[in-house]
Amino acid sequence: MAVKRVNGLLIGLAAVALGAAMPLAQGWAQDPSPAVGAGSAVPVPVPAPPAAPPTAPAAPRQGALGAGSAPPAPAPGGEAAGAGGPTTEAAPANVQKTPAVPAGPSRRLTIHLGSQRFTYSEGGQVVRSGPVSSGKRGYGTPGGSYRVLSKQRHKFSSRYAGSNGRPASMPYAIQFRSNYFIHQGRLPGYPASHGCVRLHGGDAQYLFSRLRPGDPIVITR
What we know:
Number of strands: 11
């Protein structure tokens, strides 16, 4: 009988111990984190900030350019024009401009056959002079008063050939009578042409730029 009582007592103690251990085991299963000591702060999880919504692309500004229009071209010189528009560079102060051609009656060209020279005047004042070579013996340049009939920058003779066998070149030709011209040519220092009046290149270019059809040409002996 004593043995049965001891066994019953042991069984009861085991049941009590088992009943006390069950809640502790359940708590461990629910919260596996280590125990927090007395006085320690319990860490509180901080929620992550919400993600920012995606930024929409900026809408194109409405201006003078439409969709697909090319950007404005830079101003001349490679730089953009300012508010007042493109600017132009000022001309150097030392640039000398060619005087304007005066009215017709004030322009006059005179060929002096005896001295083999020319004088060109504007407004009664001689502004240029130089040597010439007129027609040689048998092909003399006709004297008299004439007027400019026509001008031709690149002309070739219809009658005479040059040293290369081709029609003779007569640059800056100024016609004053039928087949007679004043033009650029060789000046040996004496009459050597077939009737035309030859000039140095610079003189021929100058007279060609100044004289106009109708201007007087006087050829004196």
